[in-house]
Amino acid sequence: MKIAVLLSGTGRTLDNFHENIKKGSMQGSIEVVVSNVPGVLGLKKAEKYGYPSFQAPDNKAINRILADYDIELVLLAGYLKLYKPPAHLEKRVLNVHPSLIPSFCGPGFYGMRVHRAVAERGVKVSGCTVHFADEIYDNGPIVVQKCVPLDDDDTPDSIADKVFAAECLAFPEAINKVHDKGIDYFWE
Fold first, then answer.
1. pTM of the complete model beyond 0.85
2. pLDDT at position 188, please?
3. Which runs of consecutive H residues, i.e. helices, occur in the chain?
């Protein structure tokens, strides 16, 4: 599948995609990388890897860029805004969320906010969810979830590290699953 990656920060998930594609453990090819935030490390990494990379402040500008590429799947890789794709890419946007949906999700729950809430609640497991994104935060069909056991002395930072390690496995697994089963399989 031909992939567009949207990001807002350091590009750690882009690193993971790049390495998995190189190893042959993730299907697809990255055609373009777009950030809504100017000058972020993720854009510099995209350039280093040889991917066309752009900064675009909003959905309209992102979609103008994507129109120049033959994109089959959009990956939200630490993209911190609600993305509204053009009609031909609806149901073709995958996101990773740093908890086990339906826990700790929805508007305002992202990144360290999730991990702080998990620590404050004292849950014994957390994890990540790769799901299709739609117009409602953390709502679309779930493709893959990975569970992460937590210890009583875990901090938001240690939870974040554990969950990110799980994301590095779950996101490529989800992409491969979508590639093998087809997008419609998850929306039926």
1. yes
2. 87
3. 12-23, 41-49, 59-66, 111-121, 156-181, 183-187
Q: Are 74 and 4 in contact (CB under 8 A)?
A: yes
Q: Domain-by-domain residue ranges, the chain?
A: 1-90, 96-188
The second-level CATH assignment, the architecture, of 96-188 is 3-Layer(aba) Sandwich (3.40)
CA-to-CA distance for 24 and 54, rounded, in angstroms? 26
Decide which of 3.40.50.170, 3.90.79.10, 1.20.120.1760, 3.90.1150.10 is the CATH code for 1-90.
3.40.50.170
Measured CA to CA, the distance from residue 67 to residue 37 in angstroms comes to 20
Side chain identity at residue 134, one-letter code: D
Backbone angles phi, psi at 10, to 5 degrees: -75, -15
Helix (H) or strand (E) holding 69: none
Alpha carbon distance 103, 107 (integer Å): 12
For 145-185, the pLDDT digits (tens) are 999 999 999 999 999 999 999 999 999 999 999 999 999 99
Written as six digits, the tokens of 164 are 């990110």
Choice among 18, 97, 115, 131 that is catalytic: 97
Clarify whether 97 is annotated catalytic. yes
- How many CB atoms lie under 10 A from the CB of residue 106? 13
Please answer whether residues 35 and 4 qualify as being in contact, where contact means their C-beta atoms are separated by less than 8 angstroms. Answer: no
